[in-house]
Each structure stands twice: as C-alpha cells, then as structure tokens.
Amino acid sequence: MRRRRPHQPRPHQPIASFTPLTPELPATSPRRHTLAAVLLFAMTVLAALAGTGHGPPVWTAGVAAWGAGALLWPQLARAQKRQALLLAGAGLVAFGVALARGGRPSLMGLLTQNTALLGMLAAVSFLRLLRTPEAGSDGLPRGRGALWRTLGAVHVLGAVINLSAVFIMADRIGPDGKPRREQAAALVRAFLAAALWSPFFAATAVALTYAPGASPLGLAASGMALAVVLLTLAGRDIERASGNGAADFVGYPMHAAALKVPAVLAALVAAGHWLVPDWAALAVISLASLAVVGVTVLAQRGPRDGGHALFCHVRDRLPGMSGELVLFLSAAVFASGLRAVIDSGGLWLPFSGFGA
Fold first, then answer.
1. What span, in angstroms and rounded, lies between the C-alpha atoms of 260 and 61?
2. C-alpha distances in angstroms, 35 versus 29, 30, 67, 299, 314?
3. What is the pTM assigned to this prediction?
C-alpha cells in the first residue's frame, strides 16, 4: 500500500473582492508585446493628430493598429478570434461580391474605418492613472443622503476614470472590501448611466463616429438629462428595496477635491470643441485626456515616478486592449466590404435618409 503524504496546509491567500480590471490573457512573447505597445502608442498619437487636420494622414494610424493587432492575435481568447474571423470573413465575401459585379472597391477603409475610435479608446485608458483623492479617516456616511451622494460620486468620477471608480469606491465602502447588494447596485447603475453622455466612454465615441453631424455638446446635453432620470429611478428603487428608505445605507465620503480633474477635462473638451470646431470630436477628447493625465501624473508623482508610471501604462496596459482592437479592426473589414457592395449597386435599401 502506498503511504499517504501528510496534509500540507495551504498558505493563506487573500480573497479578492473583484476580478482584475484587465483579465489575464494567454502569454505573448515579450518582444511581440513590447512592439505591439509601441505601435498602439503610435496609433494613439497619430490618430489624434490626424483628427486635427494638421497631422499625418489617418491611414498611418491604421497601419500601426493593424500591426499591433497582428502581434497581439495569439493572446486573444478563442471566442474573440471566432468573432473577429466571422466579421472579417463576411467583409471579404462582400468585397468578392462587389468585384464580381464589376465594382472597384477601395481598400483604404481598412486603414481608416474605426481608427479614430481606437485612438480615442487608447487615449482615455490613460485616465486610469489618475489618483482619486483619499476619502480621509472620517467614518463612512450613512442614510438616505449617503445613498444619493454615492450615486452622484460614482457617476461623475466614473464618467472620467471609467470602471476604476467603481472598484475604488466598492473597496472603500464595502465590509472587508466586499460591497453589499444595495451598495453594488448603486455603484454599477450610476456608473452605467454615465455612458449616456461622457465623452470618455466608448459608447459616446461610437455615436460621434457613426451619427452624421453628431455634436459632443449636444450629445452630452441630452444624455445628461436622461442620466438624471436613470439616477433618480435607481436611487428610488434602492430606497424601496431596503424597506426603511435606505436609512442604513453606507456610502462613499465624497469631497470637492475629487471633482477637480473631471471638471478640468470637461472644460477642455468643451473649449476645444468651441475654439477649434474643425478638429474631430474624438481628436479633442484624445488630446485632452493625454494632456491632463500627463500633467497631473507628473505633478503628483514627480518627473521620475510619473514618467515611469506613464511608461508602464504604455508597456503593460495598452496591449491589454487587444480584444477591442481586433474587434474594431475586423468590424472595419466588414463595414468596408458592405460599403463596396452598396456602391456596386448590389443592395436595395428601403430608405434614402436617416431621421428620428
């Protein structure tokens, strides 16, 4: 008989209350990873400059994006690869149909479609480097007022630093870093409502890219009004579900200092759209994000530590957007192929314009 090995107690492992912001991906060789990071940063800068009308042509950013996508392809999950191949394959079939009909499809859309959007997504990812001011050592606020202040805090901060705000606040207000059900509901609902108006969300970038004549200020004005309605409904729902009007709700201690950076960013985007209307909206958002993050990080952490933080973000975090990168590149193939079919007279459309 085999002798059983004595039981070895496992070392204590801290229990994570949330999954990481960047999911663990299949390994990529360090050289490919570094080169992809350089190409993604180049794509970000080139796309932003191209949007001003005074920089290089946008296809240069597209070349960098496709190069990074090819390098990061091995680290994609299987489902992401299938989705990308399906979109790109449909686009290639559409190109074939257009050629069979005698059309002369342009391939430039492969390098220009969605490039500005990808550059904006990469630029706003730097907002994760912004530090949220410490809430202090005071006790956490409780009650109905704490609920509404928390809804407002995560909505405003989440509109700028995105999902990071949810994790920061959840770790602060939840017992042992694990928020209770009503706390999680308040954080997630208020954060998602910011997608209706925040220029730093991908949803807004898509709307500005594909809606003819879309204005960042007009979109923000209408989106904010709807966001207020959603926040009101979310807060009242949590109050009713608590049974006591949220009297025991533990919220986040919001301070005015936390609103400085969001206010500066919003002012820069609005001023840029007003002063240089010829610049593309996504270019204004990208340049404002990069400028504010660069100045703030260097001022808060000093030239050495701040520069290292920016370098580490480019090296480690930008390649983490490989899923979004390949998805939008494959969507560019699909859209370009569909446009080629339409231009060749291969589709009948039951409408000639778009309206409300």
1. 32
2. 10, 9, 9, 29, 11
3. 0.73
Distance CA 38, CA 32 (A): 10
Please state, in angstroms and rounded to a whole number, the distance separating the CA atoms of residues 307 and 301.
9
Polymer length in residues for the chain = 356
User: Could you tell me if residue 110 is left (phi over 0), alpha (psi between -120 and 50 degrees) or otherwise beta?
Assistant: alpha
The pLDDT tens digits of the residues spanning 179-230 come to: 899 999 999 999 999 999 988 888 888 888 888 788 888 888 899 999 999 9
